[in-house]
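To: structure subgroup
Subject: Chain for Friday's discussion

All,

I'm putting the inputs and outputs inline so they're searchable in the archive.
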Amino acid sequence: MSDEQDLAQQKKEAAAKAKAAALARKQVKESGSEAGGDNLDIAKQKAAAAAKARAAALARKQAKESGTEGREEDNLDIAKQKAAAAAKAKAAALARKQAKESGTKGGEEDNLDIAKQKAAAAAKAKAAALARKQAKESGTEGGEEDNLDIAKQKAAAAAKAKAAALARKQAKESGTEGGGDNLDIAKQKAAAVAKAKAAALAKKKGATNKEEDPEKAKAKAIAAAKAKAAAAAKAKNTVKESPEATPEAPSPNQPILDQLIQAIERHLGEDVLVDYYINTLSKDIPTLVAKPDTYFQIADFLRHDKTLSFQYLSELHGTDFETHMEMYVQLYSFLINHSVALKVKLDRNTPSVPSLVPLWPGANWPECEAYDLLGIVFQGHPDLKRILLGEDWIGYPLRKDYQPYDVEV
């Protein structure tokens, strides 16, 4: 900076101080207390700070016009000085306003210290932000560690300012303005929160800005797949190595089934049944599967054998399994107080089976229904006819491949 610029700056500072002194005297005179030395000092400090800021701004402007801008560090120092000076001036004004509103002038020094701390913190934050902006514009951004330090400093400064404001508010509400302990606790808490936020921000920036190496990503994916496969294999081996499930206890109806099989094989032979089992899906009912040509013979034996005497037919219906038709008959014996199911599988193209009406007259209408809806023919039925649909109805609605003849009906 040249001698002429120094002279201009000094002249500016002197004029600003004179204006500030005149303004202070005017304010003291208007308030009716000419001896307000403290207010005068504050006003002088404010004016000096404003003068410094203006001088710094003028110096920057002149340097820019002369084409010789200072280095980045000098610009940063000037910005810091300017922000600090403005913050001090605002803090002094705020302290005077708070003291005036509360009517207690005595605690002005404490309030001024807190305000100065808040202003200094805000100034540091602004200076750090300005430095980052200037570095970004000049194309020379700092490394990740420098950015992290700046972010931490900014967060810490903001936290300190908030803590100071909170302490003042709490002290004012409790009626004790000088709560130094509360201020320290609030500062510590705010600093801890600021550090946590700064760490989280740094972690997020690192995850966003740092691109993962494709080879590393591939290796990571392969490792994850291997771990998953190993876990699946381990689970599979655990299942295999686990002790086998204990066999289920025999059905309580197994003795009834054994009794039926022994009686049928003794009187009708061993080849009259296709299968027999306990139907666990239907109350463990003993189930017999007959051949189409032995169906009526087995039913007659169950009806008339004196040791069995299944005199009551409780159910009879047919089912289309697409590969075959099946008739299901359920009988009940009051003698042994038990039920038995008799099944027979039929050819789906020409389903035909002997009628059970001669043995149980109650089979009349159920067999007519099976004939009406499935087309099963019952040989020897006394009056086999359609009971739900008309005789001119085409097709059998309970068959899986049924297609309505008249789609509008």
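Points worth raising on Friday:
The first helix runs from residue 3 to 31.
The beta strands are 273-279, 285-290, 312-320, 325-333, 338-346, 352-354, 377-379.

D.
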